[in-house]
Write a structure and sequence with these properties.
The chain is mainly beta and about 210 residues long. It contains two helices and 13 strands, in the order E-E-H-E-E-E-H-E-E-E-E-E-E-E-E. The chain has helices spanning about 30-45, 95-105; strands at about 15-20, 20-25, 65-70, 70-75, 80, 115-120, 125-130, 140-145, 150-155, 165-170, 175, 185-190, 205-210. The two termini are about 30 Å apart. 2-oxoglutaric acid binds near residues 185 and 187.
Amino acid sequence: MDKKIRDNSGRIAPDLVVRGVDVFEGFLGVEKQQELLDDLRRVVAAAPLFVPTTSNGREMSVRITSAGRLGWVSDQSGYRYQEAHPRGMAWPAIPDVVMEVWRAVGPQDRDPDSCLINYYDDHARMGMHQDRDEADFSWPVVSISLGDDALFRIGNTTRGGKTESLWLRSGDVVVMGGDARLAYHGVDRVKAGTSVLLPKGGRINLTLRVVV
Ligand SMILES: O=C(O)CCC(=O)C(=O)O
């Protein structure tokens, strides 16, 4: 990892804490981002991106796939984690670079079960929501951003109220743990042309979770 400023307990210190959410700016340097992108191309070749729908049939604006033992899906039967891609194949393994990030900023004694891969084009967004499809909220959610800048919004542990926004850039890592684990959050927009990492533009976000 490129950032190595550690606190007394040996953990890497965040650059910023917004409402209890730890933000590690530029955590992955350009070479690691490129390595990760190459890994993700292999993941997507084995388990293609698909458009999730809400239970009432409305298409979400992101395209998704997963790596790891379990992947998150949403369709007319609702949202859930499952062991196979909607087309039936097992999810590919979580890339090593992603596991290195998890071990550097997340728990050392438990690996994630799932790495959700969201692809945002210039028009995609993600509404405010809580991550609560997992069994145990004491494990944090670790998120990695690649590609164009995204306006990430963090709210409260109940819906509504004041929120704060920050731009997430390629290589940034965010950890939502402790009291912030159940904070409402979302992505208001992606700013086209702010990164050259993805040849066709857009943004990839990876979220790592302990599910069971
Ligand atoms: O794209 C992001 O930065 C956030 C993704 C997210 O909130 C999620 O996958 O639940």
